[in-house]
Each structure stands twice: as C-alpha cells, then as structure tokens.
Amino acid sequence: MDAIRNPHKPRPAGEWVIGEMARQCWASAILIATPTAQTRFVDSCQIYLDAVIQEADDRAKGRIRSLDDYFEIRRATVGVEPSFAVGELYLNIPQEVIDQPIISRLKAIAVDLITIANDIYSYKVEWERGEDSHNLVTVVIQQFRLTIQGAMDYIGDLNARLVDEFLEKWNHIPVFDGPVDTDIRAYCVMLAEWVRGNDSWSFEGGRYFGDKGREIQTTRLVRLTGIRGEKKISTSCRG
Fold first, then answer.
1. Which of 126, 184, 198, 226 is the least buried, fewest Cβ under 10 Å from its Cβ?
2. What family classification does the UniProt entry report for this protein (predicted)?
3. Residue 130 has what pLDDT?
C-alpha cells in the first residue's frame, strides 16, 4: 500500500520485489487514470488487503463464519472492487453518482455474483486440498446442515435471484442529464462484462478444472476426488 500511495518514492533496498512492481504499475496507471478512479482504486486496495489478512487468520484458526459474516468479508477478499476501479480508469464519475442507489446496487450485485461463481468453481480444488473453510459452499453446508449438493442448489437459487435483480435494476439506470451519462453507462456495462468474463475465464483458464473446463461448462457436473473420498455434484450458476 505504501508503494501505491507513494508511487514516485523509491522503494527500500532489499524489499520484496512486489513493492517495486506495485509502484511501477501504479505510476504508469496514474498517467491516464482520472482522479476519481485513482481514489477508488487506492481505497479499494486498502480494503482488499486488510480483508486478506483477516482471511488468512480465519484459515489459520479453522474459522467458518456465518453466511452474513462470510459475505461481509468475502466481498472484500474476492478483490473485485479494485478490479472495477481498473475498469473505470478512463472514466470520470463522481462518487455521488457511484453512490446513487441503483448504481450502487448494480455494483453490489455484480460483486456478489462474481463471489458466488468464484466459490462454486474453486470449491473442487479447495475441497480436495482440505482448504475450503473460506468458501461459500462450506459456509452454507455448516449453517444450514446441507449436503454439498444441497449447498450447490441453495447457492444456485441465490445466484438466479441476483441475476434477475441485476437485470431489473439495469432497466432503471438513472439519467443525470450531462456528460456523466455516457461514463455511467460504460461503467454499468463494465460491471456486467466482468460477471460474464469471470464465468468464461473460470472454465477456460485451467485454474479450477484443468483441461476439463469446457466439458464441465457444458455438463455442469464435477467429480470431487482426493484424500477426503469421492463425490459427484452438479453446479448451476447463471451468469
């Protein structure tokens, strides 16, 4: 964060290379980023990194949060808001416009949709490693005493309701009668594209399903294997 907040300050000798990488990256980005986007990027990075520290502590202690508590921290650890800020670097949108209720809700739904998809798609890898304590599927299993498949169905229903709400809110994006209207429309499109892009990347990137991503994207069937046994589940995440 010091490197991001002070991109023109030389980094200390012997510091981990990520400091200089962050400094150079942000020093280049601010050459084209609007002031409003810069502020939101820096602020959201701080929130993200603080949350990641809490996540690490939760994992170390084996803590499984309640659904509401989990969503509160996961919305930060998923790292989507700093990415949204990158997506708007060329847009000049006042904070009060971002905070307008419909725009704010569209952003919040997009964050939740990306969070839900990420936790569903990463569950196989995390379950097989025994590292699934910080995952929505595990949270739902524990809180509602469901099976893995039952939790997937529960989360799939939640995802579908959020998609419907996003589309309903999309039809009521406000008009501000000024140049910001073009920027806010581009911003909302970016939110929707991020949701869809995350879904595609999850199957195409190989991180979660290896070379089986395309097949699983079609069948929505996932086989969990490893030291914890073997299970077959189906997933539904309508992006």
1. 226
2. Belongs to the terpene synthase family.
3. 87
Q: How far is CA 190 from CA 45, 85, 86, 91, 226, in A?
A: 19, 10, 10, 11, 38
**Does any domain span residue 48?**
no
Q: Is 232 helix (H, G, I), strand (E, B) or coil?
A: strand
pLDDT in the model for residue 176: 92
Q: For 144-174, b where at least 16 C-beta lie within 10 A, e where not — what string?
A: eebebeebbbbbbebbeebbebbeebeeebe
Give the Cβ contact number of residue 18 at 10 Å.
10
Sign of torsion, CA 3 7 11 16?
positive
pLDDT attached to residue 236? 61
* Number of domains the chain contains: 1
Per DSSP, 134 falls in state S
Residues of the chain with pLDDT under 70: 226-239
Q: For residue 118, give the CATH number of its domain.
A: 1.10.600.10
C-alpha angle 84-90-96 in degrees, rounded to nearest 5: 65
Would you state the pLDDT for residue 230? 62
Q: How far is CA 189 from CA 45, 123, 134, 163, 236, in A?
A: 22, 28, 30, 14, 23
Inter-residue contact 108 to 71 (CB < 8 Å)? no
Torsion sign (Cα): 16, 74, 56, 138: negative
